Amino acid sequence: MGIDVIIIGDSTDIKLQPLTHHTSYLLLPICGRTVIDHLLESLTPLDINQVTLLTHEHSAKVRKFIGLGERWGLNIKLVTTLGNTTIEDVLTRYDIGKDNDCLLLNAQYFRSGDLDAVVSRFQSEPGQFITGSYQDEACGLSYYCKNAESYGKNQENRSTDLVENERNIDLSLEYCQNLCTLEHYQQANFWVAENNPKYVLTRGKQKYPNVIAGPGCVISEQNLETGKLFTGVGCQIHSEARCNGIVILGNNVIVDRHTSIKNSLILDETYIGEHLKIENSIIWRNTLINVDKDSYFTLEDDRLIGSLSKTALILKIKHFIGRSIAGIALLLSLPLWIIALVDALVYKGMPIVKPTRYVGNGRAAHQPHRQIKSAEIQSRFRLLAKLPLLFELVNGNIKWFGVSICEPEMLQNREESWQFIRDSQPIGLIGPYQIESGTNSTVDERLLADATFADSNKINLIGRMCKKVFRYRLTEGLSSNVSSR
């Protein structure tokens, strides 16, 4: 009989910023394949009935990547949680052990080893709840043995008793690393590149001694002076560039002439310019991360370090088009400005315009939101009062579609991790809060609508919002006609 598997992938304690600003740590690459891809691949030798994956932030992106698990021959159920689910939570909330034994894996750990042998070892041990360790350290593996006599007991008491009476055994693994910091994440990549482990599948083949390259790469033998070089798909390294130590390049990376790279990880779609010296760093597009100092900054000069992503180019084109449309809208709105100013003068008197501050978009890609100075007309009509936001659209401080425009004071007291999901998306004039929520909504309601927008397919969501507006206008029109009759 097969077993059930629960993967705990909703940790919020992993300090992998800025890599996790826009994606889940489950989707970060380890030598060309994502963390969750490696983990699911390790499960394929097992006889598994059901896989339950617990996620928190960016769950929509995780779902898009794994689908229903067909790629690995698995049946995967994805559950979005509030984050930091513990073993006690799993034993209490999830219906494990009722029909089958259950293997629990913490996705915060990257492992290399034979999981089939691990499960056999768990099953050979007496006891109902067993945890594993590797070299006397936690490795994020636990096993719940089916026990019909104890299953009917109170779930909460059962979880407490099991954890208190758990047994711990040492497991035979090739490697285990807690991906809790950038340094540990880099070390996991280096270990795979250096050891070519049996239980971790990677892409590419040996092109030169100590050089593993993916298809479509342009690399010369003199690029590597000492150490090992691992590249993804479609990489180009100039013949006068040099690599030392462990160097890992993701997919579609270009390294220009006279550049030296040592013990560094370069992620996908990144351009490295001329005459640079990069050592013990992680680079993702235009973001340079210094692993030693645990600090990072964004370079605005694309000639040094930049993004090769087609998506980035498309976003620039969309940004230009959006600002152009905003300029046209500003010109066409001139009659409305006169109406708004007259209404404010009659309704409020002087001053008719009051200064205000909003949280707007950063000046460069991947930079955090920033405060912008704007104004609001003292009109009775909300649409007329917000006309000055057209200037912010023209300046690029906000976009047409995105999360809601907030005052800085509204975001100061955020504590829950889900309240920060909105920060990964641009600030927009039109969004779920503006369409679906009323003006009297609470801050949490606004942040929840923004979090939903940030983790959903934005095009489909915008389409749904437009349908809601059309349906609302149609219903309003029908109601007025009935009333007139």
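The record above closes out task 2.4. Task 2.5 opens with a second protein, given below.
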Amino acid sequence: MADSSVTVTQRGRPPKGDQPMTAAERKRAQRQRDSRAITDGIGNEQNAPLRALLAILARVEASEAARLCAQRAWAEIGRRYGFVSVTEKPSTEKTPSRYTK
């Protein structure tokens, strides 16, 4: 009787390169994805992941633009989780008009 050798492949997804990534490489890749999601989420809060919205909220004191972006992020979080039913739109009534008659 001949010995037939059977090779058992490992379970799971195969590595992208020659070897699997180390824990440090996986964490570095995750940080890069998170950073990219934060920059992509600015101005596009409706499609941003929750982690990106929370990072936008953390930068609220950086500048006036960051504060406005944080307001939009907070409104989006409230819309997703149902604790904000109506958000205020900027009023144009208080804006001074250049065209006076």
